[in-house]
UniProtKB/TrEMBL annotation:
InterPro entries: Peptide_deformylase, Peptide_deformylase_sf. It comes from Candidatus Magasanikbacteria bacterium RIFCSPLOWO2_02_FULL_44_11. Fe cation binds at C97, H139, H143. The gene is def. It catalyses: N-terminal N-formyl-L-methionyl-[peptide] + H2O = N-terminal L-methionyl-[peptide] + formate. Its EC number is 3.5.1.88. Removes the formyl group from the N-terminal Met of newly synthesized proteins. Requires at least a dipeptide for an efficient rate of reaction. N-terminal L-methionine is a prerequisite for activity but the enzyme has broad specificity at other positions. Its cofactor is Fe(2+). The active site is at E140. This is Peptide deformylase. Keywords: Hydrolase, Iron, Metal-binding, Protein biosynthesis. GO terms for molecular function: metal ion binding; peptide deformylase activity.
Length: 165
C-alpha cells in the first residue's frame, strides 16, 4: 500500500511522535506498516521517511538501502531512535523534504553521530553514522521530534529547473 504524504502546516508534523511499545514491533500489523512505508519511500523518491509523514505519529523511520552504510543490501528501520553527536564538526548541505515539496535549503548537521534504536525485529541497534548517512538520520529524527528542515535553514528556496543539469 502506498501512503499519501502529510504536508507542512499539518499540526501532526509539529508535535513529537509517540514511542512504540517494543512488544508490538513484530506484530503482523506493524510489519505490514513498515513494508508499506518502505514502498512509499521509494515510490515518492525519498532517501528516508518518518512515519509521521504518512499520518502515523509514532517513533519509526526508514532509510533507503543505498544510503544505509551499515548494510546496503537492506533498508534501515529505526524504532524509538535517539542520537548524540560524537564531535562538534558539522557540515552544511542542501536538503529537501517530501512534506515540504519544491522547497530546499542549506542545513547544518553534525557529521558524525552515535545512534541507538530498535530494528524491525525488535533488536537493539547501536552504531556510528557519518556524513550523508548521519544527515538523513538527523533529518528523519527531526520529523519524529516535531521539526521540519525549513525551521533550521535561513536559505529556503524553490528548485530552479532552469539551473538543473
Amino acid at each position: 500500500m502506498i501512503y499519501d504524504i502529510v504536508f507542512d502546516h499539518n499540526p501532526m508534523l509539529h508535535r513529537r511522535s509517540a514511542d512504540i511499545d517494543i512488544k508490538t514491533i513484530t506484530s503482523r500489523q506493524m510489519q505490514k506498516f513498515i513494508k508499506d512505508m518502505i514502498e512509499t519511500m521509494y515510490v515518492k523518491d525519498g532517501v528516508g521517511l518518518a512515519s509521521v509523514q504518512v499520518g502515523k505519529p509514532i517513533q519509526l523511520c526508514v532509510i533507503a538501502k543505498n544510503y544505509n552504510t551499515l548494510n546496503q543490501r537492506d533498508d534501515l528501520v529505526l524504532i524509538n531512535p535517539t542520537w548524540e553527536k560524537l564531535s562538534t564538526h558539522t557540515n552544511i548541505d542542501e536538503e529537501g523534504c517530501l512534506s515540504v515539496p519544491g522547497l530546499y535549503g542549506k542545513v547544518k548537521r553534525y557529521s558524525q553521530i552515535k545512534v541507538k534504536a530498535f530494528d524491525h525485529k525488535g533488536r537493539a541497534l547501536d552504531f556510528v553514522a557519518e556524513d550523508f548517512f548521519a544527515r538523513i538520520i538527523q533529518h528523519e529524527y527531526d520529523h519524529l521530534d516535531g521539526h521540519l528542515f525549513i525551521e533550521k535553514t535561513k536559505d529556503v528556496h524553490q528548485f530552479d529547473k532552469t539551473k538543473a543539469i
